[in-house]
Design brief:
Pfam families: Glyco_tran_28_C, MGDG_synth. The strands form two sheets. The protein has a six-stranded parallel beta sheet, sandwiched between helices. It has a six-stranded parallel beta sheet with strand order 9-8-7-10-11-12. It folds into two domains: about 190 residues, Rossmann fold (3-Layer(aba) Sandwich), CATH 3.40.50.2000; about 170 residues, Rossmann fold (3-Layer(aba) Sandwich), CATH 3.40.50. Strand 8, helix 9 and strand 9 form a beta-alpha-beta unit. It is an alpha/beta fold.
């Protein structure tokens, strides 16, 4: 029985969910699969610095995060030095883990971990094939290391951006960002629409929640048509409390509102919806594409989410709204012209046909066999 180690990191939920999705699929075909949160395994202080620091920065100082994202995308000697230090910190723990566990394949779902593992392999610390899962739609330089054996990416667009940066196209496979098995099931036939409702909007903001959700919800309450609004607040209890308070104060008979905190049935909620308003995180974007649910994007973190938004808009799968207050007129317009929603959904369906978890599993098998 082949053994696979999957390394992830908790900067947002997407990397961990991609890792768990891969584990589900690999376990199904008989692999012995273990998932490790790389920074938690190595050093509690390091994990706190990277994961908590990331969360605080993107939420509270997005402009600084954008500046750092762009700087690291054009790696100079200073940025390279930072990753050399990170590699030295992780080396004493991660290499013995690999050597004692003796995996036949290593998969990484996080760019920092990809960089570190590529560096360690380049220095001869281990000799195991490494597969990097790119969890956004435009490649960041941090992913790119000579000793990575293969990349699975979300689209042909992603592959092209990598080729332009000098990566051999023969090791780039546009098989799609892994999603949970439940998202591959189609439950649209079970959709139950409330009487006289013209449509349903799903409002989300990712696992961290978003300060902009309250404004977006207020804009939806002003939509002239009778609509159903499903709100998922994630782990942000403060926002959930504010949304519930707003619901009790301002909702009239013209709106049907459901408010949730963190949920495990996003797939089911997408199946019930005509469009989703959300940050364009890599995994949320992929889940929406697989479900053919058009996206309306009124907020995003700079860096990879901004690039994901551009990819979606360019592909006719999403609409960006410059000001949150404009959500009101945009949703009215879309429900008055449902053919636009239909066309966006068709574009997503075309894109979804290109992804294949079975091909990703076959790639894993070929890397182990080589």
């Amino acid at each position: 029985m082949a053994k696979v180690f999957i390394f992830t990191a908790s900067t947002g939920a997407g990397h961990n969910l991609a890792a768990q999705s891969l584990k589900e699929s690999l376990d199904e075909v008989g692999y012995q699969t273990e998932v490790y949160d790389a920074f938690k395994e190595i050093n509690v202080a390091l994990d706190r610095l990277i994961t908590k620091g990331y969360q605080q920065m993107v939420v509270n100082i997005p402009k600084l995060y954008e500046q750092m994202y762009n700087q690291f995308n054009n790696m100079n000697r200073f940025q390279q030095g930072i990753f050399q230090v990170l590699t030295k910190i992780m080396n004493p723990d991660i290499v013995p883990l690999i050597k004692s566990g003796k995996p036949d394949l290593i998969i990484t779902t996080h760019p920092f971990v990809t960089n570190v593992l590529g560096t360690l392999k380049e220095h001869g610390a281990f000799d195991v094939p490494v597969l990097s899962i790119v969890t956004d739609y435009k490649i960041h330089t941090i992913y790119l290391k000579k000793m990575i054996d293969a990349y699975v990416v979300g689209s042909d667009y992603t592959k092209q951006t990598m080729v332009e940066k000098g990566v051999d196209e023969k090791i780039i496979f546009p098989y799609g960002i892994p999603v949970r098995q439940t998202f591959l099931e189609n439950n649209h036939l079970n959709k139950k629409e409330a009487a006289d409702v013209v449509g349903t909007i799903l409002l989300m903001a990712g696992s961290l929640g978003s300060k902009q959700m309250e404004k977006a919800f207020s804009a939806l309450l002003k939509v002239k048509e009778k609509i159903r609004i499903i709100v998922v607040c994630g782990n942000n209890a403060k926002i959930e409390k504010e949304i519930r308070s707003l619901t009790s104060r301002e909702t009239d008979q013209n709106k049907i509102v459901e408010v949730h905190g963190f949920v495990n049935n996003v797939s089911e909620l997408m199946d019930q919806s005509d469009a989703i308003i959300s940050k364009p995180g890599g995994l949320t974007t992929t889940e929406a594409i697989v479900k053919n649910i058009p996206m309306i994007i009124p907020f995003y973190y700079p860096g990879q989410e901004e690039e994901n938004a551009d990819y979606l808009v360019d592909g006719g799968m999403a609409i960006k709204v410059d000001k949150i207050k404009d959500l009101t007129s945009m949703v009215d317009f879309l429900f008055e012209n449902k053919y636009i929603i239909k066309r966006m959904s068709e574009n997503m369906s075309e894109e979804a046909q290109k992804r294949s978890m079975s091909k990703t599993i076959e790639l894993c098998q070929s890397l182990i066999a080589q």
